[in-house]
Automatic annotation (TrEMBL):
This is Protein kinase domain-containing protein. Gene3D superfamilies: Transferase(Phosphotransferase) domain 1. It comes from the Eukaryota. It comes from Gymnopilus dilepis.
Length: 342
């Protein structure tokens, strides 16, 4: 069955709830709003020019679909659970969207607008945000801001949740037109625009986490160093090595590893050109999780070295997750004593 057909069966249900599902077009290669009108200018406080914006939604996952609400705002509807299946993600979202945590500024997650129940299916409605990787990062300051914000999320009061760090799980507080990256001459193939126009510098960028299907929540009273998760055959390409083994592992240490691999995959030139930054990523990605520094120490060290990194221009899109070069010297004992106390 085509991926959008189950959603079509539920179109009357969502319409009654105030959400008009997009239409699948081009054989399901994407979906578009039923009308050609741009989304509302006031859309959940998101930045972006929507005056002449044409919305579309690619089929990222079959359990996610786009829609318009009664105020003509773009939203995304996700199937969270069916019966007991998916209950863990539902519990995490309920926790993140309960007060006072929902209003906590450090809660850098996409808020749930509404919960919708159909039989034993539970759906969550979210604002439609652009992805963090819509355009390449243009300079060292944009790269470092991304790194710092991702680390900040993990050191905030949300530390009871191991978050499965990956760029697919990170959006940005923007919805609207993007600067073009290519132009299309009538007599030839597309040509890349260089240099690219500024985007992240045109609004106060905030990176937001989504998708807690692989996340684990722990009681806040349990020390992070004592939290364990069971290995799973499923996982990211840049997952920590201990997640593949037969023994329980610390998911917070695994998050540190995944974050380092993500940062190096996106910003290898920046890391290779700045020894202190490369050393930081090496210390975050030690093969032995007991020697891996904590996310709190990683953030502290980043903030110390960041002012000394020149804002050189760089343009890169993530295509793979290369291994981080191994450190050539022993980890200092001061880092060991500070970093292993997760």
């Amino acid at each position: 069955m085509e991926w959008w057909k189950p959603w079509e069966l539920l179109r009357p249900f969502f319409s009654q709830a105030g959400y008009e599902l997009y239409n699948a077009v081009f054989g399901g290669e994407m979906s578009r709003p039923r009308t050609g009108d741009p989304p509302a200018l006031d859309s959940f406080g998101l930045h972006g020019d929507r005056t002449c914006f044409s919305s579309f939604f690619p089929p990222v996952y079959p359990n996610v679909f786009a829609a318009r609400d009664r105020q003509n705002r773009d939203v995304v509807i996700k199937l969270i659970s069916k019966g007991e299946e998916g209950q863990s993600e539902k519990d995490i979202l309920l926790f993140l969207n309960s007060e006072p945590l929902r209003s906590e500024p450090a809660n850098a997650t996409v808020r749930v607008i509404e919960w919708l129940d159909f039989q034993d299916y539970c759906f969550a409605v979210f604002p439609f945000c652009d992805g963090c990787d819509e355009l390449p990062f243009l300079g060292a300051s944009e790269c470092l801001d991304f790194i710092e914000q991702v680390l900040e999320v993990s050191t905030a009061k949300l530390t009871s949740i191991a978050q499965d760090v990956s760029h697919e799980n990170i959006l940005v507080n923007h919805r609207g037109s993007l600067p073009p990256i290519a132009f299309f001459p009538p007599d030839g193939p597309p040509r890349a625009i260089s240099p690219l126009s500024e985007w992240r510098s045109t609004f106060p960028v905030r990176y937001l986490f989504i998708d807690f299907g692989r996340s684990v929540r722990f009681d806040r009273n349990i020390p992070l160093s004592e939290c364990t998760a069971q290995p799973s055959p499923e996982g990211r390409l840049h997952r920590a090595p201990e997640t593949l083994g037969p023994k329980p592992y610390n998911p917070f240490a695994a998050d540190v590893y995944q974050a380092a691999r993500l940062f190096y995959a996106w910003f290898p030139d920046l890391a290779d050109g700045n020894p202190d930054l490369l050393k930081l990523l090496q210390d975050m990605s030690c093969h032995d999780p007991s020697r891996r520094i904590s996310v709190a120490l990683a953030l502290a060290r980043l903030r110390i070295l960041r002012p000394n990194i020149l804002n050189d221009r760089c343009e890169r899109t993530l295509h793979s997750f290369p291994s981080i070069p191994e450190d050539s010297h022993t980890l200092p004992s001061t880092y060991l004593s500070m970093g292993t106390s997760l």
